[in-house]
Each structure stands twice: as structure tokens, then as C-alpha cells.
Design goal:
- The chain has ten helices and 15 strands.
- It is an alpha+beta fold.
- The chain has one domain: 3-Layer(aba) Sandwich (Beta-lactamase).
- α2 crosses α7.
- The longest helix is centred in the C-terminal third of the chain and has 16 residues.
- The radius of gyration is 20 Å and the shape is globular.
């Protein structure tokens, strides 16, 4: 169907608002419609934790042949927001005394891996969570993958990752190494997240998804991010509008293939926002900072100041979805945004929309209206 004909918005908190209402909620509805139009989007779901209140907004459709909006239970791929959960599991292991941040990563791999160093500096556990490992972004190398017949290229690449496992990953890890000195600067690396997943599986002597369920999902009463209800899944779309199958590769669970609804992801965000758990506090502690000190990285969380106080965020983009999760501990607001199309600039535009939402709910005073620092990428 033509999504432009279904820019219907559903606000979940006591029913829809009157069209003439001039409220922050009505403004958010308008901004969602504008985001879908400006980004050629398909569907968009937003969850907001506002000082104890939970608000949900939904727009567009969960798949192009649907005739109604998504809901708070519609499941999306959350992309690299999953990395914050991987970092959270490491923080828990550190608090429990199982791991040290300065440990050589090879300590948990069963062999030396002499290639995991540059300039005399070994890759340490902390380098995996603060995005300074200097490892390649992705292995296996997907640049040579070709689609079968008329299928989208994304489908062919997803199929390769679906068949990828730890033995092959470790074999390829032996022939790659950091491109610069570990810890020196930021660089995007899904390989670092996969490597951290291997470390965690060795530390806990169990698969990553088992640890995830026990330490995060079950205590927070979240549905499974690795085996979600298939009836609730949104369908993802490429930039060209190609419909994609579900991305559930096991080796990508640590960085991109987890799937949650806004209802579930907001439970996680609210828990992170509270910062009561010792492991959460550790995950929010800066482990790398820019030279001017304006922005830092904790355990995958990118952190800085905003007109609303401290801001922590991470965003993601998969083959067919985009996401962002943002925490404002001082303002007591958390926002999660999930979209089911991987449009150009989707992460940036979702982060901009999140900032607009927070500004609507917490208008900045003149004394706090200084611009927030540029994002760490």
C-alpha cells in the first residue's frame, strides 16, 4: 500500500488527542509525520520514560502491506544499540570480579594472538567497549559477496553472516590486527563487539544469549531479543525500498541482530537512566574522552553535556532498520526511537528528533541553552 496514505499516528496514554490540542504530545505527533515524510520512512515507534511516566507513540506501518500503525509491542531490529547491552554484560562481569578492564583480550582466547597489538600496545578489554580497538569494522569481508539472481544485495550479505560462527571468526581474527595504536582514537568496529562476545562466552561458560537473558532480559521482564515473537516483527526495508527477511545472525547479536519492541527497550533504558546498579554506574563511567573533554565514551555509551544536563546515547543502522536510545539522567528522561527503513542519514535524523522531543518535554532555560557538543561518530 501507499504509506503516504497512512500517516496515522497512535498515541498510547489514555487515547488519541484532539486534533486542535496544542501540547508537547501533539507536537511530537506532528514531528513523527514530518520525519516519515522527510526520510521516506515506512514505520516509526517511539517510547519515552519521563520521570516515572511511560509514553508511546507510533506512526506509519510495520510493513508496507499493513493497514494499521505499529504498536508499543511491534518488534524492530535495534542495530548497534545492542552494543550497550554487550558492554553492560562486561560491566557486570567486572563488578563480579571475573574480568579486569586492562586485561589483554588474548587472555580469554586460549592462545597468544600476537597480531592483536600495534606499536607495542596490546588490545585490552577496555578497548573493545570504548571503540578504540582499531580493529576492522567487519569480518567476514562482505565486499565480495554477490546476490543470487534478483535478490537484494543485503539479503546475500545477511545470509553470509547467518552462517558465520565462532571458529571461523577466530580463524580470521588471527590474520587481522589493529590499524593504529589501541586506545589512541575512536573507530567503528563490529569486530570488537564480536570479540567481546567471545570473551563473555568464555568468562560465563555459556552462549551470549543465555547470559543476556539471565542478566538483563529476565530481571527487567523483557521479551527475548534473540527469539522474539514472529507475529510481532516489523518488516525491514533498504534505502531502495526492498523488503528484507529478519536478520537474526548469532554472531551479530553483540552488535546488530537483537530485536525488541519500544515497550521492552524502554524498560532497559529506564533501568540505565536510574543508575542504581553498580554495573550500570560502571558502564556509564568515561573510559575515553576527546582532547577538549566535551565528549566521552563509557561502555559503548557516548556521553556529553546538553542543555538538559548529562546525555548518553547510542544509535544503530542495520540493513533494514534504524534506531537510537538516549538517556538524560539529570532531566530524568529516556527516549528510544525505532524505524523500519535504513534510509540515508537515519541515525542522525533520529537523534535530532530525540533532541526535539526532549526539548518539548523539558524546555531549556536561557542559562542552559548552550549548544550541545558535536556527536562522536
Amino acid at each position: 500500500m501507499n504509506v503516504r496514505r497512512l500517516i496515522s499516528i497512535c498515541f498510547v496514554l489514555g487515547g488519541p488527542l484532539p486534533a486542535t490540542a496544542v501540547t508537547p504530545e501533539a507536537a511530537i505527533q506532528q514531528q513523527m509525520s514530518a520525519w516519515l515524510a522527510d526520510n521516506d520512512g515506512v514505520g516509526l515507534s517511539i517510547g519515552i520514560y519521563d520521570d516515572g511516566k511511560r509514553l508511546f507513540f507510533n506512526a506509519g506501518v510495520p510493513r508496507q502491506d499493513a493497514d494499521r500503525p505499529p504498536t508499543r509491542d511491534t518488534v524492530y531490529e535495534i542495530g548497534a544499540v545492542a552494543k550497550t547491552m554487550t558492554g553492560q554484560l562486561l560491566a557486570r562481569a567486572i563488578v563480579e570480579g571475573r574480568v579486569e578492564t586492562q586485561d589483554d583480550v588474548a587472555k580469554y582466547l586460549g592462545e597468544p594472538f600476537p597480531n592483536l597489538e600495534f606499536g607495542g600496545e596490546r588490545i585490552r578489554v577496555v578497548h573493545l567497549v570504548n571503540m578504540t580497538s582499531q580493529l576492522a569494522d567487519t569480518i567476514p569481508d562482505l565486499s565480495q559477496v554477490r546476490p543470487a539472481g534478483s535478490e537484494p544485495l543485503a539479503v546475500a550479505r545477511m545470509r553470509v553472516l547467518q552462517q558465520y560462527g565462532v571458529p571461523e571468526f577466530l580463524r580470521q581474527l588471527r590474520i587481522v590486527g589493529p590499524r593504529r595504536v589501541p586506545g589512541s582514537e575512536l573507530s567503528q568496529s563490529n569486530v570488537a563487539s564480536m570479540l567481546l562476545g567471545v570473551v563473555l562466552s568464555r568468562v560465563y561458560a555459556e552462549p551470549f544469549d543465555v547470559t543476556l537473558a539471565r542478566e538483563i532480559e529476565k530481571p527487567l521482564r523483557m521479551a527475548s531479543g534473540t527469539q522474539p515473537n514472529p507475529k510481532l516483527l516489523a518488516r525491514g526495508y533498504t534505502r531502495a525500498g526492498e523488503e528484507l527477511p529478519t536478520f537474526g545472525a548469532r554472531m551479530a547479536q553483540t552488535w546488530g541482530s537483537l530485536r525488541y519492541s519500544t515497550d521492552d527497550l524502554l524498560k532497559y533504558a529506564a533501568w540505565q537512566l536510574a543508575e542504581r546498579d553498580a554495573s550500570v554506574k560502571l558502564a556509564h563511567k568515561a573510559t575515553w574522552s576527546t582532547t577538549d573533554g566535551r565528549q566521552s565514551v563509557g561502555f559503548f555509551w557516548i556521553m556529553g553535556e546538553s542543555p538538559h544536563g548529562r546525555r548518553l546515547y547510542h544509535s544503530g543502522l542495520t540493513y533494514g532498520f534504524a534506531s537510537t536510545c538516549e538517556l538524560y539522567p539529570d532531566a530524568k528522561i529516556a527516549v528510544v526511537l525505532l524505524a523500519n527503513k535504513a534510509t540515508d542519514g537515519a541515525q542522525e535524523s533520529l537523534r535530532a528528533l530525540s533532541k526535539q522531543i526532549v526539548s518539548l518535554l523539558r524546555p531549556a532555560t536561557p542559562a542552559s541553552s548552550a549548544a550541545s557538543p558535536p556527536p562522536v561518530r
